[in-house]
Amino acid sequence: MDVTHFDAIVLGGGPAGLTAGIYLSRANLKTLIINEGSIGGQMVLTHAVANYPGVLEDSGRNISQIMKEQAKSFGCKIESNVEITKLDLKSSKKMVEIDDDEVFTADVIVIATGGKPRTLGVSNEEKFKGLGISYCATCDGDFYTDKDVVVIGGGNSALEEAVSLTKWVKSITILHQFDNFQAHEKAIYEATNNEKISFILNADVKGFLGENHLSGVKYQDKNTAEIKEITTDGVFIYIGYIPNVDKFKDEISVNERNEIIVDSNMKTNVDGVFAAGDVIQKKFRQVTTAVSDGTIAALSAIEYLQSK
Amino acid sequence: MLRTNLKHIESEEQFNEIINNNENVMVCCGRMGPMCLPVYDIMENLEEKYPHVKFYDMEFDAPHAHVIRNHPLARTFMGLPFTFYYKNGEAVKATTSIQNKKQVKTILDEYFAK
Ligand SMILES: Cc1cc2nc3c(=O)[nH]c(=O)nc-3n(C[C@H](O)[C@H](O)[C@H](O)COP(=O)(O)OP(=O)(O)OC[C@H]3O[C@@H](n4cnc5c(N)ncnc54)[C@H](O)[C@@H]3O)c2cc1C
Prior knowledge:
The complex is a heterodimer.
Chain A: E1 3-11, H1 15-26, E2 31-35, H2 60-73, E3 77-80, E4 84-88, E5 94-98, E6 102-111, E7 115-117, E8 133-134, H3 137-140, E9 148-152, H4 156-165, E10 171-175, H5 185-192, E11 197-200, E12 203-210, E13 214-221, E14 227-231, E15 234-237, E16 241-243, E17 273-275, H6 287-307
Parallel strand pairs in A: 1-2, 1-6, 2-3, 6-17, 8-15, 9-10, 9-15, 10-11
Antiparallel strand pairs in A: 4-5, 5-6, 7-16, 12-13, 13-14
Helix pairs in contact in A: 1-2, 1-6, 4-5
Chain B: E1 7-8, H1 12-21, E2 24-30, H2 37-46, E3 54-59, H3 66-69, E4 82-87, E5 90-96, H4 101-111
Parallel strand pairs in B: 1-3, 2-3
Antiparallel strand pairs in B: 2-4, 4-5
The structure holds flavin-adenine dinucleotide.
């Protein structure tokens, strides 16, 4: 198997990874970004980013494409939609194998693998994806015109997406596991004052019902412990994001929420390994904070290589 | 027209010509939304590795997309994109909603083996 050496490898091609790629390659370091998904990461899930300074409003996809071109213009190589099949972060020469057939080594690694939507992990969730279960109101909302749907979750995304679904649907029931919302005031106000939206609080989803297509949700009423069912045409799930650390959480220190622990220079517990973006332990997860982390991680990595 | 690097199907005649004149065809019918974009990216990525398969996209809201929207295999589909796999002009497999690279490759390897 051919082995290609790089000064730096960045794992993840969202805003944090692309920023790290821009800084590393602009410092004349031979840099490779390896991305398991599509370039842009969670940013491409956003139809309109309106809070990224310098850009009045643009789609996450467009901003990602520009960041990608910027990184490539400095010589950064990018491998996307690949699978990491082997990884060694602890040795002084780090190693990443992709798709079982290509091996790359590097002196320094930046982990910027972001997060992925949390799933409920209950029965029939995967089976009914696209057959009644959706994770994107703007994509699939019009399939539910004049129908009754359930939105699961109680954070900003759940409440905002429920309000946006009211354009199409007849009614929405928001099922939430707590008796209060984890969202900002505006989102709560808009959802609770919308006459199409009703709420079932303190409800634990236990599974999805149906034969070839979703027909209902089974949940436990936490007040009474009673198992109940609700009939519905569709379910939209927004229950937050979890860090993508499965591939390396045995090597890198993570906290109880599986977020990578870093110092203020984005350095992890492993020599020569830095981390940035949504995958690290922090409070605010935005494109701006990801880009900032990516910058700090790359500059620290450059300093680390110069000191060797 | 979808803003992807894939070849686009822009009429029903072109669609029929493509599926009837090529043994293996994958068509992703969607919009420029977050569930569809990753599938287009995966297809672009696989074009080189699967030279015996033709990869196309089709705009979900275009009139000619009824060939996919109203296909019996898509009867229960409620999530974009609708992705169809044609062998010698016949739809042999269809999926709804976002798919990852592994899922797409599994279908290509099963239905379009070299
Ligand atoms: C629906 C939605 C709307 C949002 N709207 C906004 C907004 O309007 N404004 C704003 O500022 N922020 C918004 N955010 C938050 C913002 O998108 C994230 O904070 C930001 O994308 C995080 O960037 P990241 O690079 O750390 O991670 P990500 O964007 O998650 O990118 C990580 C990348 O790494 C890849 N990856 C995963 N595992 C591996 C692995 N093992 N190896 C290699 N690659 C891997 C992933 O496929 C992905 O491409 C939104 C998020 C969501 C979900």
